[in-house]
């Protein structure tokens, strides 16, 4: 592709490979001979600085970047901005993390105002975002970017853990064993047994949420 640095990869249910880059989103469809750029609906200039990709149960792919949150409908080759209700949008436009949990709730992390939870998605209708980090007094910093869910439904990064059931948000510190130096926002994965791995300047942080 011609997008410069690759930041995220996503293989969707239909076998397509989605590529988030510093200059837009690209896709390699099953059986296609080349990677194509996903355009912006209405002929608008396509968003750049893409940081996050997530697939919903309906096959749509959600895209987060420096200019906000977008959505590519299943089978489409166009991105459309996700509109928010007045006064209920993201606290900051720079999206660095996306996650659909087991209930298909979308979690969004932003560079400055942290973790958000999106209200129910009704196709084409404006949505609302709950400002989780800000409500807990965590301001002027991200939640950690590398959003992952454990088997109890808690949302983790290398910096914080949030439990929706108890509405409890906790910071992970060196006292918890989370001493990995500078955490890399683009370095994380989950193993088959549920452990979560986060990369940082001092090595790798391994989180076993069952312990």
List keywords for this structure.
211 residues, five-stranded mixed beta sheet, four-stranded antiparallel beta sheet, globular
Could you describe the 3D structure shown?
With 211 residues, the chain is mainly β. 2% of the residues lie in helices and 42% in strands. The chain has 1 helix and 20 strands. It has one helix at residues 132-135; strands at residues 6-11, 17-21, 24-28, 36-37, 39-40, 50-55, 61-65, 68-72, 78-81, 95-100, 106-110, 114-118, 129-131, 148-149, 155-156, 160-163, 168-171, 183-190, 196-200, 203-207. A 5-stranded mixed beta sheet has the order 5-9-8-7-6, with no helix packed on it. The chain starts with 5 loop residues before the first strand and ends with a strand. The model has no long low-confidence stretch (mean pLDDT 93).
C-alpha Rg, in Å?
17 Å
String of helices and strands: EEEEEEEEEEEEEHEEEEEEE
The CA-CA distance between the termini, in Å, is 42 Å
Q: Which regions have little confidence, pLDDT < 50, spanning 5+ residues? A: none
How much of the polypeptide forms β-strand, as a percent range? 35-45%
- Strands, count: 20
């Amino acid at each position: 592709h011609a997008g410069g640095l690759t930041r995220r990869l996503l293989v969707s249910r239909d076998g397509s490979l989605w590529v988030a880059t510093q200059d837009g989103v690209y896709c390699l469809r099953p059986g296609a001979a080349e990677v194509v750029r996903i355009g912006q609906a209405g002929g608008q200039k396509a968003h750049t600085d893409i940081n996050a990709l997530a697939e919903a149960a309906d096959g749509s792919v959600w895209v987060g970047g420096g200019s906000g949150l977008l959505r590519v409908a299943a089978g489409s080759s166009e991105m459309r901005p996700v509109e928010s209700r007045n006064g209920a949008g993201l606290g900051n436009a720079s999206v660095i993390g996306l996650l659909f949990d087991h209930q298909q709730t979308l979690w969004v992390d932003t560079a400055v105002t942290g973790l958000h939870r999106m209200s129910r998605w009704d196709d084409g209708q404006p949505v609302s975002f709950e400002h989780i980090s800000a409500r807990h007094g965590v301001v002027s910093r991200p939640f950690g970017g590398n959003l992952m869910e454990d088997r109890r439904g808690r949302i983790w990064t290398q910096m914080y853990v949030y439990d929706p059931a108890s509405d409890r948000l906790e910071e992970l510190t060196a006292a918890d064993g989370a001493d990995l130096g500078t955490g890399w926002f683009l370095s994380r994965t989950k193993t088959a047994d549920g452990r979560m791995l986060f990369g940082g300047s001092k090595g790798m942080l391994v989180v076993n949420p069952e312990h």
